[in-house]
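FAQ

Q: What does a record look like?
A: Structure on top, sequence underneath. For example:
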């Protein structure tokens, strides 16, 4: 039967499927937890129906779905422009192949090579202390995307994270207190960093530049951000350009650890 020819399978098909699965998995990881996930699932469904109608030679339906997908590509570029940007950044990122993903899998070969586990407790404790004292702070955790483009706006550092260090950096009279701190692999790698500010109109007026900067960097990259408000002493956890809600700081700590894993 001609229509079942597609069942013939060779090595190239296997590689094709594996690469496609890898691509889809990474796209899924990017959009997971965002509103884009529903659009992503919708597209996958439309695509699968299109392929099915094509294989079964249902000319009319296949034509309609084909046209829809053809035009839809441009719509997708607009809808997913942030995710596409993050994905391309991830592919070209120096961090992607270097540390978190690649080395971690081979960590057993060299036990003490990298200290990749961020001491989240110390960071959260420092934030709690700063919140009490109404000291503003902005801490960004790098993940897969390289943050080199923002690190260059501040001072490069290499300080292992401790609670007192973080508190002293953001202490009001400290020369380093302005801007954001970038954290990678349990090290403060940059201070006084100027982040891209989000121009999203839906952010409530009460949030100023510190919060907009946290939203901006987490929209443009897969980084995570913690903000301590100087005005209210409120601590916000921001991911994918949105405020993450949590009931207590233990829950927030667990979420950050999970997101950094
Ligand atoms: N683009 C930026 N990147 C990094 N840090 C920034 C940026 N813009 C402002 N900041 C930091 O935020 C501080 C000003 O915060 P602002 O009062 O405007 O924000 P906010 O969101 O209202 O925060 P808060 O609740 O702490 O007042 C600045 O002193 C600076 O340290």
């Amino acid at each position: 039967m001609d229509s079942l020819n597609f069942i013939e399978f060779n090595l190239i098909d296997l590689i094709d499927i594996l690469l496609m699965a890898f691509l889809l998995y990474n796209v899924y990881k990017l959009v997971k937890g965002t509103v884009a996930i529903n659009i992503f699932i919708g597209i996958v469904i439309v695509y699968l129906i299109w392929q099915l109608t094509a294989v079964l030679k249902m000319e009319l339906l296949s034509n309609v779905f084909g046209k829809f997908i053809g035009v839809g590509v441009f719509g997708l570029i607009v809808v997913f422009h942030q995710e596409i940007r993050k994905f391309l950044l991830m592919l070209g990122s120096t961090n992607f192949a270097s540390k978190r993903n690649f080395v971690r899998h081979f960590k057993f070969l060299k036990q003490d090579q990298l200290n990749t586990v961020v001491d989240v407790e110390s960071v959260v404790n420092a934030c709690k202390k700063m919140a009490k004292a109404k000291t503003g702070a902005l801490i960004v955790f790098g993940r897969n995307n390289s943050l080199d483009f923002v690190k260059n706006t501040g001072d490069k550092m290499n300080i292992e994270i401790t609670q007192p260090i973080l508190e002293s950096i953001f202490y009001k009279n400290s020369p380093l207190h302005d801007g954001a701190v970038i954290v990678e692999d349990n090290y403060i790698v940059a201070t006084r960093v100027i982040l891209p500010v989000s121009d999203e109109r839906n952010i409530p007026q009460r949030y100023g530049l510190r919060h907009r900067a946290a939203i901006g960097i987490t929209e443009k990259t897969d980084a995570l951000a913690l903000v301590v408000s100087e005005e209210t002493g409120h601590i916000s956890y921001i991911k994918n350009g949105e405020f993450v809600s949590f009931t207590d700081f233990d829950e927030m700590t667990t979420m950050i650890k999970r997101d950094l894993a």
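Q: Is there anything notable about this one?
A: The CA atoms of residues 19 and 25 lie 10 Å apart.
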